[in-house]
Amino acid sequence: MIKIGLDAMGGDFAPEQTVLGAYAAVEKFDDIEISLYGIESEIQKFMKQPHDRIKIVHCEQVIPMDVKDPAMAIRKFKDSSMVRACKDAKTGDIDAVVSAGATGALIAAGTLVVKRLKEVERPALAPVMPTIKENKYTILCDAGATSDAKPQYLYQNAKIASIYAREVMNIENPTVALLNIGTEDGKGTDLQKEAFALIAADPTINFVGNMEGKTMIAGEVDIIVADGYSGNIALKSVEGTSKSLLSLIKEELMSSTRGKIGALLLKPAFARIKKRMDASEVGGGILLGVSAPVIKAHGSSDSIALMNAIRQARETVSKDVVAKISQALKAE
Amino acid sequence: MIKIGLDAMGGDFAPEQTVLGAYAAVEKFDDIEISLYGIESEIQKFMKQPHDRIKIVHCEQVIPMDVKDPAMAIRKFKDSSMVRACKDAKTGDIDAVVSAGATGALIAAGTLVVKRLKEVERPALAPVMPTIKENKYTILCDAGATSDAKPQYLYQNAKIASIYAREVMNIENPTVALLNIGTEDGKGTDLQKEAFALIAADPTINFVGNMEGKTMIAGEVDIIVADGYSGNIALKSVEGTSKSLLSLIKEELMSSTRGKIGALLLKPAFARIKKRMDASEVGGGILLGVSAPVIKAHGSSDSIALMNAIRQARETVSKDVVAKISQALKAE
Fold first, then answer.
1. Which of A97, A150, A286, B226 could connect to B231 by a Cys-Cys bridge, CB 3.0–4.6 Å?
2. What is the structure's pLDDT at B273?
């Protein structure tokens, strides 16, 4: 039985969608048990009937979605659903944590409570991004766990994301590109130049060289390696631009009768686009480099997105990704 | 008379569109003279009739659009249209340079040939980005001139972009935000933290704090300050996502009869969106911090875009922006 801890209070639609996501997941997978961490009375409102593979672990506190100082929050909210789940992942009471709570807090809890593997210099947040190619996804590693990066961190990001892509996403020989300001060799700051040399020298990494921000969602590679600072800037620029552009299109369409009729005709096409670009279809971002899988689901996750994040946690546990990362880095 | 040097050989559609752009500009503005730098025989093909305010400065070489090593190219292509124009801007024979040629080469030529103002620590490339708000543009400074940045550079970027926004874009008290991984104070690496403190302490800068990649094109501020590395990543992520998304929409629409009919109805709406998001309407990016205005027009510029870039050069010269930047930084 794979034991998954779900932060039932995390996310914009918690605990209703987290509880529904847990039910959907246990119905889909008969080899998982889910512990719902959170305020028992709140959780029970949405539990239609008891399930022998779902239990509640009552916690008194909830970390707010808009928490300002994540590291402080982890110390202050010791009895929160997020921190308690992370503690139990550290001790081995559960095998993985899934949370749609505040990203910064979950990175802090993953790092400070679940704790990094000793072979890993810094944990990295690795979301799976949709691309414009059908059924093609790209892992970004790191999207913001470690902003002050060193070349060695980027090298490890390339290595551990490759393991994750191989094991969980079933990509046999995942291609890795380094986010940079040009595609030629020798571009970027010292950080990128030195990271490039380290990654290129490792025959276990299928390195294809530098890539630019303009191909972030082009679906050309399996893994994009970045420092947490620029990875975060790139990811949010992509997300923000998609959102801004789609809202601009909607506004334009609604500004005329002609547009409204056209929009009606195009509803199925736009629904397909939305589905294709929807990150919730593929689960959440995984915090790689800590001693148990920690999955960050999107804050706006519904039950389907949470079910997919649970699926991702289950896969990561069953493929023993944490141990494989530890071994690969130990062998260096 | 304002003397503008146009790199007639720079850009994907040169020299036809550059020559047409020059004609459009002299017709529009009677206070400018244009020198067309490039291969005389090539240029003359597209000169319908002589114009007393357009002359040709023959150069033997052209810097290729896909040049790999910009600094090397500047030394190798001494008699290129781009380098010659920059030389003449340095000596004062012309007042400003406009080029749609290779970005890296133009930054190198601006820095090494036109040369930076002694008060400026590092030049910065400042494109004017369209936003989803109508008639609202945002200056990004730096978009890639200086990748290895120090806090002081970012502070100067805030200061010089404010002068440019005030003088050329007629924004009285331009708002400035610092590109970062979170909106709260204290976010980012040491570079952002120290730059934040410097910018916040200067009462001449209308600083509104940190902003994230997700609001790059939201049109919330007049100026976004960044180091050249992350500014470049953000800008290209925005451009690439817009392009990828619009091509995905097109593909989806063309995949069914229903979509094709809808697309036909929506043609005017999509044309408006395209126009609103079109950078060519506002000119090019300016290289700030060098001793004469150097305008980088988009590589795919047509004559209209080039005319707008020439307009921008004219404005920058007539408002004496270079001297104002020099004075403002001298006064520190």
1. B226
2. 82
Q: Which of B104, B132, B244 sits opposite A244 (nearest CB)?
A: B132
Q: Is B255 helix (H, G, I), strand (E, B) or coil?
A: coil
CA angle A154, A159, A165 (to 5 degrees): 120
CB-based contact A291:A115 (threshold 8 Å): yes
Which residues in chain A have their CB less than 8 angstroms from residue B298's CB? none
d(CA A108, CA A72): 9
The H-or-E segment that residue B35 falls in is: strand B32-38
How far apart, in Å, do the first and last CA atoms of chain B sit? 33
**Cβ contact B107:B69 at 8 Å:** no
CB atoms within 10 A of CB A41: 9
Within 8 A of B270 by CB-CB distance, chain A residues are 249, 252
From chain A residues 127-186, the ones with a CB under 8 A of any chain B CB are 131-132, 144, 147-148, 179, 181-182, 184
Alpha-helix residue ranges (DSSP H) falling in chain A = 16-28, 40-44, 70-76, 81-91, 103-109, 151-167, 190-200, 228-253, 257-265, 267-276, 303-318, 321-330
Report which secondary-structure segment, H or E, holds B261: helix B257-265
The answer to whether the Cβ–Cβ distance between B259 and A236 falls below 8 Å is no
Q: Is the separation of the CB atoms in A203 and A167 below 8 Å?
A: no
Residue A263 with chain B: CB contacts under 8 Å: 262, 266
Question: What number is the average pLDDT over the span B294-299?
Answer: 95
The pLDDT assigned to B117 comes to 97
Measured between beta carbons, the chain B residues lying within 8 angstroms of A252 are: 269-270, 272-273
Using the predicted structure, report yes or no on whether residue B197 has a pLDDT greater than 90.
yes
- Edge-to-edge order in the sheet of strand A294-296: A54-58, A32-38, A2-7, A96-99, A294-296, A285-288, A124-126
Two tokens, residue A212: 């630019």
* Phi, psi (degrees; rounded to nearest 5) at A33: -120, 140
- A266 close contact with B: CB closer than 8 A: yes
- Percent pLDDT > 70 in chain B is 98
Q: What is the pLDDT of residues B122-132, one digit of tens each?
A: 999 999 999 99
Q: Which residue from A minimizes the CA distance to B211?
A: A233
A278: its two tokens: 């929807």
* Separation of alpha carbons B286 and B126, rounded Å: 5
Q: What ipTM goes with this model?
A: 0.91
How large is the average pLDDT for residues B203-213? Answer: 97
Are A322 and A295 in contact, with CB atoms under 8 Å apart?
A: no
Of residues B152, B86, B154, the one with CA closest to residue B126: B154
What domains appear along chain A, each with residue ranges and CATH number? 1-120+289-320 (3.40.718.10), 124-281 (3.40.718.10)
Pick the closest to residue B114 from B313, B304, B329 (CA basis). Answer: B313
What does the pLDDT read at residue B280? 61
Residues 268-307 of B with CB under 8 A from A: 268-270, 272-273, 276-277
- Out of B181, B248, B266, closest to residue A233 by CB: B181
H or E segment at B223?
A: strand B223-225
Q: Which parts of chain A have pLDDT scores under 70?
A: 279-282, 332
> Is the Cβ of B250 closer than 8 Å to some Cβ of chain A?
no
Q: Do B240 and A190 touch (CB under 8 A)?
A: no
Tokens of A215: 């191909």
Could you give the C-alpha distances from B199 to A13, B103, B137, B193, in angstroms and in order? 38, 28, 21, 10
pLDDT at B266: 84
